[in-house]
Amino acid sequence: MGFYENDEDAFLPLRDVVFKQLREEILYGKLKPGERLMEIALSERLGVSRTPVREGIRLLEKEGLVVMLPRRGARVASITAKQLEDVLEARRTLETFAANACCAKITKTRFEELKEANRKFSEAVDSRDLRQMADTDTAFHNIIIDTAGNEKVKELLVSLKEQIFRYKYEFMKEMDDPTRLVREHDQIIKAIGECRSDRAVEMIRMHIDSQAIAIYRKIK
Amino acid sequence: MGFYENDEDAFLPLRDVVFKQLREEILYGKLKPGERLMEIALSERLGVSRTPVREGIRLLEKEGLVVMLPRRGARVASITAKQLEDVLEARRTLETFAANACCAKITKTRFEELKEANRKFSEAVDSRDLRQMADTDTAFHNIIIDTAGNEKVKELLVSLKEQIFRYKYEFMKEMDDPTRLVREHDQIIKAIGECRSDRAVEMIRMHIDSQAIAIYRKIK
DNA sequence: TAGCGGCTCATTGTATACAATAAAAAAACC
DNA sequence: GGTTTTTTTATTGTATACAATGAGCCGCTA
């Protein structure tokens, strides 16, 4: 690669370095949906041979970030309205499960983390730093998912969210009142704090759906 | 590979042939959990070079059938009780969602397919052919999932089921009364036919849970 | 004999060369 | 001039050679 993002990467297999790099570029829009990923061009740009590039691309496919056609190479995954709906529906299903489980397992410290996470999200919203907003929002949701304690569900949700991250990112750019998200988070926190799992589930559902509708509008 | 399962495979990239072959061997127990997958040995056995073997193994990793450790190669995924619980919980969450959606979208022809599928499953149970039982059971559930019409959920469920297929297979071997499964299927069909989605969801949940408990017992 | 250190070997990681193929361009034909 | 066929070229698929590394072995030392 010629350079390394940080020292950790120096010990990672090159395929993972390639994976991380390309993932970053896809998620934050440098590589756009539908764009071809050509092995030779990438290996030259990244300064490695084709082998780790191929393997890195396979990892991206695993995360649903690229699609491969035999003998035709890989493209950054683009998404149809139907696929977006499907992903969001799957996400909603799993994340409402997580919210429910979270209510049963929440601890005092976890609850405080949740509040702290939303505070950070609120700051990010105030700062209008898009990247920061996206990251802190993810962190907030991840606390709920972590508390639910189901590793497989977590893994699936990470993958599902990555698949629509790019669109969410674009959508946040044009959102008129992002402070609404902060208030929605607060309501979720409140429901969890009161151990009202039905309400928490409903809040999460609404929270995801409202974003879903906005993203959906943008896609079309 | 030297030979081909069928003509279709002759046109597939070798990585896919390798993937299919190894997947078969893992699912039906020829390759056992924890067993190492060594690239050179496999490439010799399958008559291809290491490259497609490596890529085939990556595909297996994507399906959760093998786990890879950097510089230590790949092993057939074995599962802890906790992981099994997590997978089953995720499956239950998504499949109850599918059952619910199925009730809303079921058509007359699909309903007939469902009944036919359970008839075939019943025959398989009578014949005591384990492989047949597993396949027809999967086919039955797949009709419900297909009818739900969410491709992403389907994809996730396929992967989740594969991860526990081997254990289910082992468990079926020692099941005392497999006809119970046929009756459970019948109840699910009935609930769907009556458009009682609450009941269908509950039936699916029970159906999965009863298997879950049995598999769980076996693992421990 | 227990523990340390370096050696060997098996195995994965990476690079590269060659083969196969699909898309694009050029040529031949009507 | 347009259409089909051939040729070229770009790109992926596959094989293989070499490098790097981790695991186990063996002898050394105390």
What does this structure look like?
- The structure is a homodimer of 220-residue chains.
- With 220 residues, chain A is mainly α.
- The first copy, chain A, folds into 2 domains: 7-76, Orthogonal Bundle (Arc Repressor Mutant, subunit A); 81-219, Four Helix Bundle (Hemerythrin (Met), subunit A).
- Chain A is 73% helix and 5% strand.
- Chain A contains 9 helices and 3 strands; from the N terminus they run αβααββαααααα.
- Chain A has helices spanning 14-27, 39-46, 50-62, 81-105, 108-127, 130-148, 151-173, 179-193, 197-219; strands at 36-37, 66-69, 73-76.
- In chain A, α1 (14-27) crosses α3 (50-62), α2 crosses α3 and α7 crosses α9 (197-219).
- The first copy, chain A, starts with 13 loop residues before the first helix and ends with a helix.
- Chain A binds a DNA duplex (30 and 30 nucleotides) through residues 13-15, 38-40, 43, 48-52, 54-55, 70-73.
